[in-house]
Design goal:
- This protein is mainly alpha-helical.
- It has a single domain (30-423), classed as Alpha/alpha barrel (Glycosyltransferase).
- It has 14 helices and 18 strands.
- It has helices at 22-36, 62-78, 81-84, 89-104, 131-146, 152-167, 192-209, 213-230, 266-283, 291-306, 332-349, 352-369, 399-406, 416-421; strands at 10-12, 15-17, 40-41, 44-45, 60-61, 118-120, 123-126, 129-130, 168-169, 174-175, 178-179, 190-191, 239-240, 264-265, 318-319, 325-327, 330-331, 380-381.
- β9 (168-169) and β10 form a beta hairpin.
- The N and C termini lie close together (4 Å).
Length: 436
């Protein structure tokens, strides 16, 4: 997908790579998997600091354990070690098995069902049942099941039943946000972030299980989000009250919240765009008209509002509802989602500007975000693109970065684990992915 002026290349052994090309992406995947192995903790997967060491000041969190399990399963399915020197398939399967064991052991609530949000050596530290984390249980179990990890099929069935029983609201076609430990009191807050990851998880679960009802639920969520965003100049409303009325001023006094920031979250516009294209490809002839057009509108709005909005390269974290930057820090997950979205939109639309943006954004990521010396990606930069840690200290997550380096090598649908299990990547011999 390279176009325009080519940036400086880098050497990986005897191979010269250009940011974003196939060899570069393979190297990124290997480096990220190596870094992720340090997250293994007796209770699941822990928070990594900037050097890749476990940060014991953080408990073992459900969402991190699930994301690491998901990535380990994808790495095992990809089985790339002969090409790039990353952890071998056996080591990655062992990590995925460890994740499944944590999700059926320390993180599981044996009394009430579902999963604790965080656990420590003395037991649960955060007992709330959060839709965000439970969506990632579904995703992790789906990927582990595709990789044939022992116990993953049962975990997936359990996770889907919990999602259906407690989070899925058939009346509105959306996922509730949070319950107390015993499932007796539902939080009055509702959020779109958890619904976004529920769409991702339901698409993956539907692909792995063959049950198309999960795709249909993903469609219903997406229709609501598209309608709200269209009415809001394609800026995604993030926060809602108990009756699903938008709360556009929510958290105005805490604008840099890592999960519930005030205003429009630029990265979510990009992430929703990628998911809408995936939904369109997944549903095929049954897709509602206009999904790809909506994806383009969301992505164009995010780029117009967020990219170099304050004069420096990079995406700002949030804007107000007029598109003015609020939090100027650059988060690694935003550029990662931008890369994945550019890849799928280039293929879905044939519009060359998405290929051009893909090249531009990989060049930026390579210069500013990828930590070539320390490993993984710097999770936060300030408005001058210097390393920062006001919102995201350390490097706890390889999920966004690994997927950004994987998206161009796989078809738009099915989801990652199913595609890899089918041998769809170029190095597996049958890949239709976009190579640079």
């Amino acid at each position: 997908m390279r176009s325009g002026v080519r940036p400086a290349s880098e050497h990986r052994g005897d191979v010269v790579t250009t940011p974003g090309d196939a060899e570069y992406r393979a190297g990124q995947r290997a480096d990220l998997l190596r870094f992720a192995t340090g997250a293994r903790h007796p209770l699941g997967f822990g928070w990594l600091d900037g050097a890749g060491r476990l940060d014991e000041t953080h408990p073992v969190e459900l969402w991190i354990t699930c994301r690491m399990t998901h990535i380990a399963a994808l790495g095992a399915l990809a089985d790339e070690r002969p090409a790039n020197g990353g952890p071998d398939r056996g080591a990655l399967l062992a990590l995925a098995e460890h994740g499944v064991a944590a999700l059926t052991g320390p993180l599981a609530d044996a009394q009430n069902g579902g999963w604790f949000a965080a656990v420590g050596e003395d037991g649960p530290e955060l007992t709330s049942k959060q839709s965000y984390g439970h969506a990632f249980v579904v995703l992790a179990a789906s990927s582990a099941a595709a990789a044939r990890v022992a116990g993953a099929d049962d975990l997936l069935a359990q996770a889907l039943q919990v999602s259906l029983d407690h989070f899925w609201d058939e009346r509105v076609g959306l996922s509730a946000e949070e319950w107390d430990a015993a499932w007796t009191t539902r939080d009055t807050y509702n959020g779109i972030n958890a619904n976004m990851h529920t769409v991702e998880a339901y698409l993956a679960a539907g692909d792995v299980s063959g049950d198309r009802s999960w795709h249909e639920r993903a469609r219903r969520i997406s229709e609501r989000v598209v309608a709200w965003s269209r009415a809001n100049d394609w800026r995604v409303p993030e926060h809602f009250d108990a009756e699903w009325r938008p709360m556009l001023q929510f958290n105005r006094d805490e604008p840099a919240h890592p999960f519930r920031p005030y205003g429009a979250t630029v990265g979510h516009g990009l992430e929703w765009a990628r998911l809408l294209v995936a939904l369109d490809a997944s549903l095929g002839a049954n897709a509602q008209p206009g999904l790809v057009d909506s994806a383009v509108a969301l992505a164009d709005r995010a780029v117009a509002d967020g990219w170099a909005a304050d004069g420096a390269a990079g995406f700002v974290y949030t804007t107000d509802w007029e598109g003015r930057p609020v939090v100027h820090e650059r988060m690694h997950w935003v550029i990662a989602e931008a890369l994945g979205t550019a890849s799928v939109l280039a293929r879905a639309t044939g519009d060359p500007r998405w290929s051009e943006r893909y090249d531009l954004w990989w060049d930026y990521a390579d210069r500013c975000v990828v930590d070539h010396a320390g490993g993984s990606w710097r999770h936060e930069l300030d408005r001058t693109n210097a390393p920062a840690a006001s919102v995201w200290p350390g490097k706890p997550d390889v999920y966004h970065a690994y997927q950004a380096a994987l998206v161009p090598d796989l078809p738009i649908a099915p989801s990652f684990a199913t595609a890899l299990a089918a041998g769809s990547a170029p190095w597996q011999g049958a890949g239709p992915g976009v190579t640079a």
